[in-house]
Amino acid sequence: MREKVIEMLASRGVQVGEIAEIVFSLQREYVPGLSIEDCEESVLAVLDKREAQHALLTGVALDVLAEKDQLPEPLLAIIKRDEPLYGVDEILALAITNVYGSVGLTSFGYLDKCKCGVIGRLNDHAGNRVNTFLDDLIAGVAAAAAARIAHQHGRSYPGVTDGMQAKG
């Protein structure tokens, strides 16, 4: 299924490498020796998750239906305008970030504001494309992939082992 999702993203103008670049920008300061390849691997691991696949398939389908004017009003107008108070697109993206906890959530909030890289291009609303869901979903994938890396390379603290306080 991951390959189908990657094909769908490519058909919407999104490459895994573009998402990996965002992940790299989020984590390079915290993970010495981090490479773009590490970030691509993390993005692919997120895309292996069923929650991510389902969110992406659902959101992109809604964007495509809106482009074709095949949603009922007033939902069609709301999605086509990407109304600021329509938060369903962000909520769907949070299904992806929640897999990796609060680090993913805070990274998503940052990406939702800064519109870095491909997220900004998708949010541009140029042409006939509707990306109301896709820009947030890509931010969700990038945030989750960054959180995955953070979890893999987290610092250990004195007196704390495997998340439990050492008894002493």
Structure description:
By secondary structure, the protein is an all-alpha fold. The protein has a single domain, classed as YutG-like (Orthogonal Bundle). The protein is built from nine helices and two strands; from the N terminus they run αααααααααββ. It has a two-stranded antiparallel ribbon with strand order 1-2. A hairpin with a 2-residue loop joins β1 and β2. α2 crosses α9 and α7 packs across α9. The chain is globular, with a radius of gyration of 17 Å. It starts with a helix and ends with a strand. The C terminus is likely disordered.
List the helices and strands and how they pair.
Blueprint: H1 2-11, H2 16-27, H3 36-47, H4 50-67, H5 75-81, H6 88-97, H7 101-114, H8 118-123, H9 134-152, E1 160-161, E2 164-165
Antiparallel strand pairs: 1-2
Helix pairs in contact: 2-3, 2-9, 3-9, 4-5, 4-6, 6-9, 7-9
Which structural category fits the helices and strands?
mainly alpha
Order of helices and strands: HHHHHHHHHEE
Tell me about the largest β-sheet: 2 strands, antiparallel
Number of helices: 9
Q: Under the CATH scheme, which architecture would be assigned?
A: Orthogonal Bundle
What characteristic shape results from the CA principal axes? Answer: globular
Tell me what portion of residues adopts beta-strand conformation: under 5%
Could you name the CATH class? Answer: Mainly Alpha
Count all strands and give the number. 2
CATH level 3 topology: YutG-like
Number of domains: 1
Strand order of the largest sheet: 1-2
Tell me the distance between the termini: 49 Å
Share in helix = 55-70%
